[in-house]
Write a structure and sequence with these properties.
Elements (H helix, E strand, L loop, with lengths): L15 E5 L3 E5 L3 E6 L4 E2 L2 E2 L7 H15 L8 E3 L13 H4 L3 E5 L2 E2 L2 E8 L3 H9 L1 E2 L2 E2 L9 E7 L2 E2 L11 H8 L1 H23 L3 E13 L2 E5 L8 E5 L15 H8 L14 H19 L10
Antiparallel strand pairs: 1-2, 2-3, 3-7, 4-5, 6-7, 8-14, 9-12, 9-13, 9-14, 10-11, 14-15, 14-16
Helix pairs in contact: 1-7, 4-5, 6-7
Length: 303
Amino acid sequence: MPASEALLTTDLPGVELRHRGKVRDVYDLGDHLLIVATDRVSAFDVVMPNGVPNKGTMLTQLSSFWFEKLGHIIGNHLVSTVPAEYPEPLPRFADQLRGRSQYVHKADRFDVECVVRGYLIGSGWKDYQASGAVCGIDLPAGLRQADRLPELIFTPATKADEGHDENISFEVMAEIVGSDWADRLREVSLRLYTEAAAFAAERGIIIADTKFEFGLVDGELILIDEVLTPDSSRFWPADQYAPGQSPPSYDKQFVRDYLQTLDWDKTPPGPELPAEILTRTAAKYAEAYLALTGQPLPDFDPS
């Protein structure tokens, strides 16, 4: 597969496919999982027929960067991202896995999204306009769209395998995971966001909000899934930030903006995306990776 082409799906004969999500293909390996980030791109909960080249590589490599960077706060599920180190028969599929896969511990997942918000944007802004609060948390009057919040807020959500996640109160989260774990998840999430946001700010990126997922391995709390990527976070270029409007983002904004110009009812199937939109989106992902890591996105030769 040429590096310029998007990998839209994986085919690993003899390996049990556990779940195919909007972006990731997850394979069951007993007490481990193989998570492959494809180049699929979704918008309005619809997966488009073509994808963004190297998107999966960027998501995987950036998650790996953050796992290492934040490892002193909490451990994580990552074992390896090198196909030659994976158990058989995975190494023989290296052309599909190189650069975009994680061999990880299988965790008992907490079925909640741990969302931390530092800025008033997205569903939080809509919530605030309607009620003066975000997910039941009262905020001062007079805040503008994209304003920095007076203090971080923790707004958990349900973890939905299909469709939309739904915001829930901290009290409901405590009923789902238990009050002690709810307190622990909130505390760790706020620490992770605070450190990551400070690091990103030094590199010209605002992390407006993000979501974390956690699980247990042998009773130990660990960070799982992806972490602090443009798919799980809002990254804004600091030099273009201006409260009172929605800032540009290091994500699939070009895809959403293009789709809004079409006569499409936002139901499957999604329309074919023009090459220019895909190229600009890929460039924006690569720009974010370079800004955060200080290195260009690695070129993993798929041959």
